[in-house]
Amino acid sequence: MKRFLASVAEKRDKIVTSEDVVVNGMGRELYEKFFRGYTRKQWGLDPSELDAQVTARVPVRASRDDRYFTDKFQAMPARGFTRMFENMLDHPNIKIMLNTDYQEVQHEISHESLIFTGPVDQYFGYRYGELPYRCLEFKHETHHKPVFQSAPVVNYPNEYAYTRITEFKYLTGQEHPLTSIVYEYPRADGDPYYPIPRPDNAALYKKYHALADETPNVHFVGRLATYRYYNMDQVVGQALALYSRLSGLTRTEALAVA
Questions:
Q1: Would you say domain 80-127+194-257 falls under CATH 3.40.190.10?
Q2: What pLDDT, on the 0 to 100 scale, is given for residue 255?
């Protein structure tokens, strides 16, 4: 496999865009078959218009390891993410306000320190304009069969309007005569999911980042607040790092408390 990829790769002197990453590593034919169509659907942009980090995130295997990540330990929380968040929020000092715009209540809630995980441009009233995000629409279905597809996640790089189908039973180990799946449709509008990695967007975020640094007692955490394309484990790591900094605990102590 390594010899084959090396034989079809079209080496680029400088890696700047997502197209450069793939063509440099595996040539144009595989780029057209697997990457270009998917990227256009997911981001609404051609890979040549996106930073290299987008496709650089996708691992290329020269083995039969079919996992997306290579971490030694990979698992969901023992009782699922819902229970994990329920445990985190189960405290007398925590009050949850649903369907509430932060800006409508920010002057009603007294606080010494604020941890903000929403869009950073929204926090500052879009002072320099809106940061662009890519959104998703989910279509859920239940099927009267034990299994719907042959893997937990199947990507559709070229056909259909959706990018992938996820079948949850593979991830949970659940056994049931029915199965639930979800289709993912990328959208330009809706709840923000993905910061769009482009040089002009990065330049705009730098302005908001400077404002964030100048804002006392407010800590910006997560994908939207730091305009970064984080994975779940990276966001958890960022949250633990902030907690250890605020609490005066070491990272190991913070993890033990969490």
A1: no
A2: 65
- C-beta neighbour count of 218 within 10 angstroms: 15
Kindly provide the b/e burial profile for residues 29-44, where b requires at least 16 CB atoms within 10 angstroms of the residue's own CB.
ebbeebbbbbbbbbbe
Residues 190 and 70: beta-carbon distance below 8 Å: no
Q: Which helix (H) or strand (E) holds 87?
A: helix 80-89
- Does the structure show a pLDDT above 80 at 253? no
* CB atoms closer than 10 angstroms to residue 240: 17
Burial-class residue 199 by CB neighbours within 10 Å (0-12, 13-18, 19+).
exposed
CA angle (194 as vertex; 189, 196 as ends), nearest 5: 90
Query: Could you give the CA distance from residue 50 to residue 229 in angstroms, rounded to a whole number?
Result: 13
Domain coordinates in residue numbering, the chain: 2-56, 80-127+194-257, 133-187
CB-neighbour burial class of residue 1 (10 A; exposed 0-12, middle 13-18, buried 19+): exposed
Instruction: List Cα–Cα distances, 252 to 237, 242, 256, in angstroms.
Output: 11, 13, 6
Percentage of the chain surpassing pLDDT 70?
97
Q: Note the Cα 123 to chain centre separation in Å.
A: 20
161-173 burial, b for 16+ CB within 10 Å, e for fewer?
ebbbbbbebbeee
What are the tens digits of pLDDT across the range 66-89? Answer: 888 888 888 778 888 899 889 989
What pLDDT is recorded for position 106? Answer: 83
Amino acid identity of 254?
Answer: A
Taking alpha carbons only, the member of 31, 6, 4, 8 closest to residue 19 is 31
Strand extents, DSSP E, the chain: 114-116, 133-143, 153-155, 164-167, 179-187, 192-195, 218-220
